Amino acid sequence: MTHQPWYDHRPRQGAVPDNPYASGGHDGARTPGPAVPGSGPGPAVGPGPAVGPGPGFGPGPGFGDGPASGSGPGAPPPRRRRPGPLPLLAAVLALLLVAAGGAYLLKERAADRRGTDAAPGPSATASPGVRPPRTTAPVPEAERIPTGAELAAARKPGEAAAWIAQDPTDLPRGSTLAHDLWIVGDTVVQALYKKVTARRLSDGAELWSVPLPHPVCETPVDTTPDGRVVVVHRNRDSQQGSRCNQMRMIDLRTGRQGWHKELVQTGTLDSTIIVHTAVSGDTVAVVQNMKAAAYRISDGGRLYDIPKEDPGGCYPDDVAGGRRLLVTATCALGAEGKAYSRIRSLDPATGRVLWRHDTPKGRKLGKVLSVEPAVITTLDAEVYAEDWRVVALGPDGRVRGTVDARGKGFKHCADAGDAGQGVQNCPGAVVGPHTVFLGTEGRVGAYDLTTGKLLWGVRENSGRRLYPLAAAGPAVVVYEAATPSRPGLVRRIGPGAEKAVLLQRHPAAAGKHEYETLAGNLAYVRGRLVVGPSTVSGDDHRPVPRLLSFAP
């Protein structure tokens, strides 16, 4: 594998000093925490076998800025599940977008598996009135997922230890969303369909599961400090008349269920077709279309309403949790070209507003990469991800710095699309105290959150998609995702050849199934990587594992 460095501190033509975010200039993350990558600085990474130095990490000429921003075909608009500005219509459209996002990933996965082996349709040149001979299509043999013991037996020298988890639960044939992964103690917990399941991190053995009466429809990224979470499931299985309105508290340390509460819907403004949740401390914040409220996790009691704000007509639309509670809102609805987003930092216990930040008119919030420090992405309201920025906010909500990484080929959230997750789910970005690490296909780089300048960057020719997992000082731990022909691996990458360290090489025996997850959900803790799909199909002939895990 050939690495090429790029360092480019030259000011670009047309760059605007001071605050390019507010003026639209060029230059100037989910934060990894102890449980889920992306919620705080990651642990220090131990040494591993060094990657050959080569020319890839020494100072040298960059590979250029690539196409100018805004020229050529841009990335497609991100697939989002937000309800949007209009109450009932937007809620229905958001529901359709969820299905479309999942279908997109499933279509991509199916195309990658089948290649060009799709059966052709009837011949257009057949003679009229002549019935073609009847043929019986062979029934494809069902694929099989190997057991952990089989992976261990096939493990080659130098490969990481691995386990793989499957679940015999019968799923609908369509696309079923696999929700956030939670790391609690020595377990990884996953909510999927009508069940919440805990597995031991060391070997993937199932420790407990909580059956639910109807499918899970929303989970927060974070848990309480003591490992409790609130999941939201539907009130019925069928789509017709279904509402995402059943809140249920679960203790992820023991698998015991706590309180159960139904969200009240009085009209279209607080519709529960789709909801968003976030946990901060002992508080869970819930957005129902254009209204929001907070509840106490310990007993389910309602704490306070999160109101719409005027002037600007700012309606709550999503929430982000962890060490801080952020509430996002869409403002100036219906004002063509003048709509914008507002982010509020709230005291989770009381709802008191600590600070506000408004994006410039014509720009909207993309994702929340980190809540502390507060780092967001913004998108142009017309061209979306073709024109995106990373914006770091100070403790008062004012702009600390702006990063425009498009010139180096970085895509918004690694161009991963959106299968229906909320505002905190953004692969391809990790935030440290002073740095944001970005990844995309074939490259990874570090940008200063205050100056917006590129600190270091590496480009490789592997064709892999690179996902930052955890900050490690000036370096970053990166998952180089599996391809159809090669299993994945984990490296620590940073400035200087001495920082290029291979931490683990994933076993070839698991490569096919690792690739089929499309790196939909990732968790990294204490040197162990857990990989899961973002959506799962009920097609029994083409099963996709629920989880895979790798450790040195």
UniProtKB/TrEMBL annotation:
The chain crosses the membrane at residues 86-106. Pfam families: PQQ_2. InterPro entries: PQQ_rpt_dom, Quinoprotein_ADH-like_sf, WD40/YVTN_repeat-like_dom_sf. Residues 59-73 have a biased composition (Gly residues). The keyword Transport does not apply. The keyword Hydrolase does not apply. Residues 44-58 have a biased composition (Pro residues). Keywords: Membrane, Transmembrane, Transmembrane helix. Gene3D superfamilies: Quinoprotein alcohol dehydrogenase-like superfamily, YVTN repeat-like/Quinoprotein amine dehydrogenase. Residues 117-129 have a biased composition (Low complexity). Residues 1-11 have a biased composition (Basic and acidic residues). Residues 181-303, 319-478 form the Pyrrolo-quinoline quinone repeat domain. Residues 1-83, 111-146 are annotated as: Disordered. PANTHER family: CELL SURFACE PROTEIN, OUTER MEMBRANE PROTEIN ASSEMBLY FACTOR BAMB. This is PQQ-binding-like beta-propeller repeat protein. It comes from Streptomyces roseoviridis.
